[in-house]
Design brief:
10 helices, 45% helix, 5-stranded parallel sheet, Rossmann fold, alpha/beta, 262 residues
Length: 262
């Protein structure tokens, strides 16, 4: 009788093991892209060459969302070619989520902002903005398409969250070290919107698993020189200038990513 009882218990245990939900190994989340995804601007980095930070939106999402295992592959200064060469190797069929900010460095946007921050007599803001806008219209779309195609091929079961960049500037320049005119700030912000529009168009064209999220509305009221900045102005560490600070990642980008994941 005991022997039969043990057999029955063992069989029941085996059946429960089959029927019960298995412990999740975690959903793999890979964050690709440039400094806006690596965490540049947050002031603390565990991987200095790429300025990857525990304060980046990807790391915050992984900490706050149970069962999410993040690979932060994004790197400060990355262009589309860098994503294809150095970052997409982190993707696989096991990848459940991908996020990316990319295109700003291809268009030289940080160099354009730096040029416009100079006094009018010392810079060439208008010409640089025009060149960037032409690049965004004519050259960037094919680069974005190539990145999205490779992501889809390497992570065929992933949902891909494509994020835009915020408008950087308010209508006044409060920083003693910069010399933005009202017209220059307007053109820079308009260029961020142009970049947003192109990114949105080609992300949506990439397929149903691509979800575009616009950072411009989320950062509204929190530009440089606003009362509650989510973006750095001119910093002592110049490379951190005009990037999201910790509040920008947590309150600006995290809700955009989680609006898809949750």
């Amino acid at each position: 009788m005991l022997e039969k009882a043990f057999v029955t218990i063992a069989a029941a245990g085996a059946l429960l093991a089959i029927l019960a939900p298995t412990a999740s190994a975690g959903q793999q989340y890979v964050a690709l892209g440039d400094s806006y995804s690596s965490g540049t601007g947050t002031g603390e980095y565990y991987h200095e060459p790429c300025q990857r930070s525990k304060h980046s939106y990807a790391r915050i999402v992984a900490r706050e969302r149970p069962g999410t295992d993040v690979i932060l592959a994004a790197c400060s200064g990355a262009e589309t070619a860098d994503v294809l060469r150095d970052q997409v190797g982190s993707l696989s069929r096991e990848t459940r989520w991908v996020s990316i900010t990319i295109g700003g460095n291809d268009a030289g946007f940080s160099r354009v902002v730096a040029e416009c921050a100079k006094p009018g007599w010392a810079g060439h803001c208008g010409r640089r903005v025009t060149e960037a806008r032409q690049f965004i219209r004519r050259t960037l779309p094919e680069r974005l398409r190539s990145v999205y195609e490779v992501i889809e091929r390497r992570a065929p079961d992933a949902t891909v969250i494509v994020l835009s960049y915020p408008r950087l500037l308010k209508d006044t320049d409060c920083d003693a070290g910069t010399f933005f005119s009202e017209h220059e700030m307007e053109r820079l912000n308009d260029t961020a919107e142009l970049l947003r529009d192109k990114t949105s168009r080609y992300a949506r064209a990439a397929g149903q698993r691509f979800r575009f999220r616009d950072a411009i509305p989320g950062f509204a009221g929190h530009a440089v020189c606003s009362g509650n900045e989510w973006l750095n102005g001119l910093e002592r560490s110049v490379g951190e200038s005009f990037h999201p600070n910790r509040a920008g990642h947590r309150s600006g980008y995290v809700p955009l990513v989680r609006s898809v994941m949750d």
